[in-house]
Specification:
- With 347 residues, this protein is of the alpha/beta class.
- The protein has a single domain, classed as TIM Barrel (Alpha-Beta Barrel).
- Helices cover 46% and strands 12% of the residues.
- It has 16 helices and 10 strands.
- It has an 8-stranded parallel β-sheet with strand order 3-4-5-6-7-8-9-10, sandwiched between helices.
- β4, α5 and β5 form a beta-alpha-beta unit.
- The longest helix is centred in the N-terminal third of the chain and has 21 residues.
- The mean pLDDT is 96.
- The chain binds 5-methoxybenzene-1,3-dicarboxylic acid (1WB) and manganese (II) ion.
- 5-methoxybenzene-1,3-dicarboxylic acid binds next to loops.
Amino acid sequence: MSDLIEQRGTGRTVRRIATEEAFTIPEVADALREVSRHPGASLDLPLVRGIYDAGPSGSRFLGRLLDVEEQRLADMDEHGVALQVLSLTAPGVQMFDADTACSLAEVANDYLAEVIGRHPDRFAGLASFAPHAPRRAAAEMERARNRLGLHGFVVNSHTNDEYLDDVKYWPVLEAAEALDGCIYLHPRGPAAGIAGPLRDYGLYAAMWGYGVETATHAVRLIASGVLDRFPGLRICLGHMGEGVHFWSWRMDFMQRRAAAWGHGAKLELTPSEYFRRNFVITTSGQESPEALDFSIRTLGVDHVLWAIDYPYQPTGPAVAFMDGVEVSDAERELLYHGNAERVFHLV
Ligand code: 1WB
Ligand code: MN
């Protein structure tokens, strides 16, 4: 049984479910290559060029993103990963015009459903949608959950420099809430409005800019009051919550002040209460025992899910990290699979 691999050195078995695992399909890769050949200021372009237009030698990621059933399954077997929750890799369909984005999301979701159909015990999947066509996005979300049986949704932060708290995107939030589908709020390159100082020193990508962009998006959802409108909305943040909960005390204090001074929304809850009610986080690409300990202590162990960030992060160290953290057996079971099963409807 590949899903019950001995937890290193302990003689115990554990079911490891990885929750932020990236793939692509040829249609999306071709469209991104096309986008990458046009000039533009988007901070997604450097990585998109590097991955999809890397020339004859190819990028080290593209082959791994396109593969699901060969090298990836072998990697999962080698490291005792029972199941990957797959999502179309960043920036997803969000750099394409709305019509192209809608059709490519449908193609990607159909592909995902087929792969899961062939390997229901090894893969689950988060559906893509085109936020810039909000009504079609909501319809695709409904199809993906109810007809294709996909397990939640993924969105790669901003769309055309806009954020989901904007009333035009409420159909998306309404659909996610109604379908009980958690939205994985995944990073992409920072929006134009915050891009300037992130252009230098490689700051725009995973080292810093992805987190600034995505944390800002999450804090907008909290501070806008949109979670009073959609109290059942569930959001998953990778990379140890993009650091948002580290700011809990200061955000609670300053949001109250901002509201009193008329700069902020009048909210029913404090920011940290929304974070605990509406958000869960994953450990993707953030293998720090201290950050994990802080997260468990402040959010509760039921709010933290394991993830690798395959293929951008190697599987072995991600497994060694979670195998090695000092938590009880019951807590490790929640981190490795119990929480993922609950959040993404895997059982
Ligand atoms: C990286 C990570 C690159 C992610 C990506 O390109 C995405 C990276 C789209 O580590 O360089 C990711 O999904 O976290
Ligand atoms: Mn990722």
